[in-house]
Amino acid sequence: MKDLLIPSVATILATRDETPDTRTFALRFRDDEEHRSFSFRPGQFVELSVFGAGEAPFCLASSPTRPEHIEVTVRRCGVVTNALHALGPGDEVGLRGPCGNGFDVEAAQGWDLLFVAGGIGLPPLRGLIWNVLDQRSRFGHITILYGARTPADLVYKDELRVWSAMDGVEVKVTVDRGAPGWEGNVGMVPVLFDQVELRPERTVAYVCGPPVMIKFVVQDLLMRKFAPERVISTLERMMQCGVGKCNHCCVGHRYLCRDGPVFSFAEIREMWE
Amino acid sequence: MVSERVGTLSESRGGTGARGVCPFCSCGCGLRLLHDGLHTVGSAPVLKHPVSQGRLCARGWASHEPPAWGGRLLAPEIREGGERRRAGWDEALERAARELRALLEVGKAVGVLVSGRCTNEEAYLAAKLARGPLRTGHLDDPLGASYRALLAGLCPEGPPGEGGRALEAVEHSRQILLLEGDLSVTHPRAALAVLRAVRRGARLVTLGLARTPLSQVAAVHLSLDPLRPFALPPDLLGALGGGNGRPPEAPPTVLLAPFTSDPRIVAATVRALAEVLGSSGPDGGTGARFLPLPFRANTRGVLEGGVAPDRLPGGLALDDPQALARLRQVWGMDPWPRPGLDAAALLEQVRGLVVVGEDPPRSLPAPAKAREALKGLESLVVLDAYASATSDAATVVLPVAALQETEGTLTSLEGRIQGFGPAVPPPGRARPGWEVLFRLLELLGAPSGRAALGAVRAEMAEVVPGFRSLVGSSAEGEDMPAVARAGRTPEPDLRRAGAQGGGDAFGSHVLVLAGAFDWDDDLMVDASPTLRRDGASRRKLFPQGSVTMNPADARALGIRSGWSVRLRSRQGEAVVPVSLGTSVEPGVLLVPFAFREALSGVLGGEAAQRVEVERT
Amino acid sequence: MIAATRAEPDGRWVLPKENAGAWVERLLEGAQVIAPVAGPEGEEVYDVVRTPHQVLWDFVNPLDPPKRFVLPQTEPLARIEKTDGRFRVEPIHDEAPRVFLNLRNCDLQGFHFLRRMHAADLPDPSFLRRFDSLTLVSLACTRPCPWGFCICCEGGPFLREGYDLQLTDLGGVFLAEVGSAKGRKALEAGQGLFRPATEAEQVRRLELEQQALRSFGPETCHFGSAMRRISTRRVADELWEAMGPWCLECGGCNLACPTCYCFSVKDRSEEPWRGNAGGEGSAEQVWTRCRIWDSCQYQAFTLEASGHNPREAKRERIKRRFYHKVSAQYYRKDQALGCVGCGRCILVCMGTTDMPSVVAAIRKGRWEGGRL
């Protein structure tokens, strides 16, 4: 049996700067067999080690339908992320996972999908977005609403363009504060709700972003008659082991790293400690 | 039990655990250090230890971590043409001796700084190094000034004598006056003694610049005026007596911690307290018993070992002819009898410096100044187990064993001298600190005896009274000094301290520096993966520092937690984020000691300043 | 209760005390033996024994918990080597055969709590390998310890199951009850040293148990109503708030608790010890990935990288501890109360917020400062 807490070695294949402090890393397990057998759902995460600096959880930003490499998008904000940003193609890291429950893509089959992301909340949804786009016919209308603080903080700018060019996909972007050259929307994400046609009765909404953003977006959606069980979000806590043992990420008796991080708002409502 | 016997000190191995004394604060808790032969891997409580009685605070439980996880100095190094390179022990020691001797020969000042995380034996040898071959009084512990300030108002001749039962006495006190920064953080075991007393029905009065956990269980909390803390609240005695205007019936116990960074203010406050509580004895008064609380594990022992600009080993006066004669006889050379500068001042003056187990920028109130001073030295000889800004600036690095890897004694706040042995050998080529100091003394021409710790202790027994009783028969002393013994108290110079106070109308608020030390700034705390998190996150959240403000003040200014304010004093200005807390009084802005640097321009070298506050 | 003590034909043996040393000698031939020994301050501690005479057979349960030997405070998980920019991760396994001798039953229950938790959901093979290489020989408490309240939480003083071997001190002999094949093996190691128990000895064992149950001290802990209140959110926030100043955040309640297992994972640089460790290869850099004890009572335990901390307030952390220990939700998840009644938290608490004090406060709905 494989050790629970021991990572395997993976190689950084490529990196791409998303914003001044956010970078996407394409990774591949050093062992081909291990890479091939790595299967995951969008919304799951990996424990990534920068050896010597430590280990931290990162959501998988790529889609299982594109298995040649695994992507994570990382904002620089701590010891491990700083050390990771110092690495480049060819460097090795540790990988362990996948961890967590992930999004239930099957259950969303046949529904319209609404993605609402804020700032660094787009990466967890990106894997899901590509996943449904790669099986486009199984889903209804797709709407992607994305907001960031400033134009410079928008991640995946190229992909936003690619998505918006696709049939049956609507993409709207806004920033809290504009900047010279920015001609798009200005305002918090909910301003975009009035620019698209929302069909609460036939839509599953996925909301991802900073806790405050999630809070007001979910409130807004509920007011617009979205069913709590079809408003899906991810919760954030300090995570360490990723396998439900270390107790850092508990909310009540639930472990976000095992029972989550993906929950419907109906479930979140029932959580307390 | 007064103290451990020196004779049994080295018999400390017990299977896979070695007897240890907590290396952090001065409470003197005992623990068992577990090891795997190479690393220290665990800390276990000891039920039968007279002080800790089975308890350990978070730091105690992690006391095995710093040596195993910290950035260690592993080999002697010397600086050559701006570059540092590894060297052999002989080469490095000779280099250190040569550098220091060269400065002495041309009459340039040298000094010695010693940390309260050194053993008594190391402190004594460092003091001997200064007052012996280096012929200087520039000798201090960077946290020593604030401890001496506590003593100055009470017992100018030195810390209270043998005791060892002071905490037990606190637990059985009926009235307790606590002057604190935050005792539950600085001295958890002492805080437990206070909690136990309160639980037993004692009346607790807390006195400080901010509300603390202990102030929440106090009968009365009295706020000090940040600008004039020595002007005590008028209702102090009444509060202690039960709020009915009568003075306390039983002699109160007074716990004193350095609550602010300016030693003069601390000294004046303690003096004012001593006056209010009255001199005990026949002419009335309260008979108050005082317990000064040094910060580090061995702040007290380091002072008693002779590390102070104005003391001899044993804490004796510089003009004590008997002490001088005894030192002359024991050392085989004349002890330097003149006073020197304290840690902050000597850094500015000396050209050569020996630093033993200390990183002055972390412990002095003005970190930037300390860093600059270190960089400008012609010779900087650093003995330490851990790498620091100071060892980075060194001309000679001498790696020594961490406390957990050496044999020695520590003197607790109660005056309890406790021995411990090495749990593991030091890593790399590090050597025990006492041994390195011994060799340095030899190289600088001090007549030396046998290179053995036992010989060092025997020597100490002749000149350090505390050690004499340790080797001799058990000497049961008073628990705490009474005010009656305070004797003549030097008048603190308060011309600068609180000069901005009084009728000065400038400023809407008062900016105050909290405490005189912050464990989050401690090198050993920083070396522990478990303990370093709080400080690291605070530094990350507030890279530009922050101040704590009462929510009422924030409402009045129309600001929220995390927002920035512009602070303007007559000295300077700064823009900093605020965090809100009811722990501070309205009208006061508290600067965590760890953030002193960010506000140094506004504070202008003072512990408190009037400021104008504006939202940005 | 008595009904469950039905003796299997080969289940009861006695070890005359004069043979105890010889038995330990035999055990030492095949395994590491961990037992209570006299520590540096003259108090009892658990440690690896080298000679039989070190083993204590009459002792107060050591304050420092034996869980260290299954869940070390610093546990090396893997050796990480860097050579020419490439990494090698070598798991460190520990499955040395060990006999844990004279474990108290509260701690035995704690051991099983830890095993259940490590076997549940995603099993941790590293822990299970180490644990399952252990033979657990408990020594029943014929005299309850002054601070124990194991009778309040099925932690002892005598057990019906869970041990490999349970010893009872009958005076001149130890009665040995076999609980598993591993226990039988440990017994067989002492072939010729044990003899079958007589009827009278078996009766004596039951008498001693009854006597022990009757001689518990005043320390009790009534979990029932506390569990109801905690599980249904009927403990007022003010109560947790009131406890705040009486907890000095030492984490001792967690670290000394037989059922606590919170941890963090960190990489320790082996640079300082290279050359000392022996067998060093040509690696440029070496680290040991370690699992280290952590405590939910430490403020930074739930601190997120963003700086947000859901349990910044002390009351939230105290509440968390008792929710994990005493709630019905966790009772269902862990299949047991998170307390075995060993009383260690009473002894190690730097303040006064130990288990019985807090449980009593929840029952009464009032905090009066905890233990006197």
Strand order of the main beta sheet of chain B, please? 6-5-18-17-16-7-8
CATH class of the largest domain in chain B: Alpha Beta
Which pair has the most extensive contact? Answer: B-C, 58 and 54 residues
Helix proportion of chain B = 25-40%
What does the radius of gyration of chain B come to?
A: 23 Å
Strand content of chain C: 15-25%
Distance between the termini of chain C: 35 Å
Multimeric organization = heterotrimer
Strand order of the largest sheet of chain C: 3-2-6-7-8-9-1-10
Low-confidence stretches of chain C: 1-7
Q: How many runs of DSSP E, i.e. beta strands of chain B?
A: 26
Radius of gyration of chain C: 22 Å
Shape type of chain B: globular
Unreliable stretches of chain B (pLDDT < 50, length at least 5) are 1-15, 280-284, 471-490, 495-502
Helix content of chain C: 25-40%
**How many strands, which pairing sense, and closed or not: the largest β-sheet of chain C?**
8 strands, mixed
Give the rounded overall mean pLDDT of chain C.
90
The fraction of residues assigned to DSSP E strands of chain B is 15-25%
Helix and strand run of chain C: EHEEEEEHHEEEHEHHHHEEHHHH
What does this structure look like?
The complex is a heterotrimer of chains A (273), B (616) and C (372). Chain A has helices at residues 32-37, 79-85, 122-133, 157-164, 211-223, 265-269; strands spanning 8-19, 22-29, 45-50, 54-59, 70-75, 92-99, 112-118, 142-148, 169-175, 185-186, 203-208, 231-234, 250-251, 254-255, 262-264. Chain A is of the alpha/beta class. In chain A, α3 (122-133) links the parallel β7 and β8 (142-148). Chain A starts with 7 loop residues before the first strand and ends with a helix. Chain B is of the alpha/beta class. Chain B folds into 3 domains: 77-143 and 297-397 and 432-463, Rossmann fold (3-Layer(aba) Sandwich), CATH 3.40.50.740; 147-292, Dimethylsulfoxide Reductase, domain 2 (3-Layer(aba) Sandwich); 509-615, Barwin-like endoglucanases. In chain B, 31% of the residues lie in helices and 19% in strands. In chain B, the strands form 6 sheets. Chain B has a 7-stranded mixed beta sheet, with helices on both faces. In chain B, strands 21-25-22-24-23-26 form a 6-stranded mixed β-barrel. Chain B is globular, with a radius of gyration of 23 Å. Chain B starts with 12 loop residues before the first strand and ends with a strand. Residues 1-15, 280-284, 471-490 and 495-502 of chain B have low confidence and may be disordered. Chain C is α+β, with helices and mostly antiparallel strands and 372 residues long. Chain C has helices spanning 17-30, 105-119, 125-132, 181-189, 199-214, 223-231, 237-243, 252-255, 314-326, 328-334, 344-348, 355-364; strands spanning 12-16, 32-38, 44-48, 74-83, 86-91, 98-103, 134-139, 165-169, 173-178, 195-196, 263-269, 285-293. In chain C, α7 crosses α9 (314-326) and α9 (314-326) packs across α10 (328-334). The longest helix of chain C has 16 residues, at 199-214. Chain C is globular and about 65 Å long. Mean pLDDT of chain C is 90; it is low at 1-7. Chains in contact: A-C, B-C. Chains B and C meet through β1, β2, β3, β4 and α1 of B and β3 and β11 of C.
